[in-house]
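Running log. JK asked me to keep both predictions on one page so they can be read side by side. First protein, sequence followed by its tokens:
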Amino acid sequence: MRHFNIALIPGDGIGPEVVAEGVNVLKAIEELDSGLTFSFTAFPWGCEYYLEHGRMMEEDGIDKLRKFDAIYLGAVGYPGVPDHISLRELLLRIRKTFDQYVNLRPISLLDPSLTPLKDKTEKDIDMLVIRENSEGEYAGAGDRLFKGNPEEVVLQTGVFSRKGTDRIIRYAYEEARRSNRTLTSISKGNALNYSMVFWDEVFEEIGKEYPDVTTYSYLVDAASLYFVTDPERFEVVVTSNLFGDIVTDIGAGITGGLGLATGANIHPEKKYPSMFEPVHGSAPDIAGKGMANPIAAIWSVSQMLDFFGEEKWGQAVLDTIKEMIGETEYLTPDLEGNAATSEVGDQFVKKLSKKQK
């Protein structure tokens, strides 16, 4: 019996709605596979918790999460709580404490009707962005001096360690080799004369160990342009924390929007739990209206299953998502459908179950 213990942090806004549908998918798989079981423990952390308790999670929250195989996060952020608090005291705290240094963002066009780009097909937009997830521009290092005075100075320091840079680039080379795809590095070495020059040097150094991997290197401004005009040139991409955050939102824009965007925060060595999440945010304007698109949350379930070594089920979930996209009757309004969140989830489970019987 293969058993996985999952911590649920539904979070804010539409988070609870979409996580509920992802959990239903896992429960359906459990019924379809007699050798696979899941257990779930929910934690009420997020912005509402902060407004009541003055903190985004319990004081011993990290210790409570350590025992789980994975964390399934819905969304973080809500009016009344500053974004730098909600982000840093929950999401980034979990990422850093559990050393989830690999962020995996698939940028894959599921159906040509979803892209605003003319004449692009599924073969043209199919890449995996590997984003450094533990340091870089989001390290939180810096200072604010003489606050409120004319002489005020703000310092925000990017942190690029040899260890952190080496391991994310090496992970990307390994993935490119494993999947027999090209590898592209995105940096800004012409302007950031310390951090990005160092990044470029490490990319070139490690590349000598992977002569079988075809590589490219682009400045982030040029890469952002090519994501839109020529996305087919990208297969596996590796980049820093900030640049990865930006270019993957461009990727979402060319593949159907944030309602289809998913991300995995991975600790590859599995010493700590990894975290899986849709990346569309909390969308408080539509929370509670049944309009939230659960597809991204369900796609993150596919990523979780892959991480567990259940690639057959991970692929089955992804294949079912692709089938669902063609049925506008069972899509939410952001994809020009009229279905409610729960209706999309119910139809998904029906399709998945039917395919496996």
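And the second, directly underneath as requested:
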Amino acid sequence: MTTRSGTGVSRPGFVWAAPAAVFFGLFALLPLVLVVVLSFAEWNGLSSPRFSGLGNWQRLFDDPVMLKSLWLSVLLTVLGVVVQSPLSILLGVWAAGHQRNRAVLSAIYFVPLLLSAAAVSVLWRAVLDPNFGVPAHAEWLVGDGNLFGTQSSAIGVLAFVSAWQFTPLHTLIHQGAARAVPQVLYQAAQIDGAGKVRQFFHITLPQLRNSIITSMILMVVGGLTTFDTVLILTQGGPGTDTTISAYYMYQKAFKNFDYGTASAIGVLLVLVATVISLIVVRLSGYDRMRSTMEGL
């Protein structure tokens, strides 16, 4: 079934989108609704859920570990944006060029993107093992060799591993955007005497505005929902120093069998990620979808 617009162009009707809409409703909207309902109930996974009103939410905000975990989630997210954004922009712009051996080097660099987060975490857990890994043979560089022994070093490891795996994804986004920049802009800048650095800051970066915003939103959502990396690398330790909200939700649900509180944490993460993403979109003007090709 197709519909005809005022311009005479035929467009697919809703029937074509029905399979995707049903899939999204069953595996995204319905679970989200159930989690919201469970956040107002007490349930241990075996007995019938019992309505508890705002009890789970009140305990959540009275829990110092939860407040600390939320702060750690935001910290890791900020670190991800600060570290990955400049790296991915520079690498993406470079990969969009025509340098010698660029294709081979890009293919090697994108290998981490093909691995699962669990596989990457297991790999780096072995590499950074304080007894058998690289730190055991480089105490001059890492002190006692236990990078998981203090909060600062453990958070640094989490930020590094996440950047190692996901920077290639954002690089790919910026590479595609950089290749779409009209060459006439660079030719005009060369005629005016602008060098590579001025061209990058006055042409390339403005043209990458939409890809940068998209990349940042993905970083925010990914950073707030990181789980498997923490589970494998630090298990929330030392103590609760790397217990982020997603990992704390796992502990509440599958270790303490408190699915009501775990659901409240999940809903809170969805709300925080949504609010931050909307703020980024609003402040950046991305919601107006202004073209970077204006004036061409």
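Observation for JK regarding the second prediction: The chain has one domain: 49-288.
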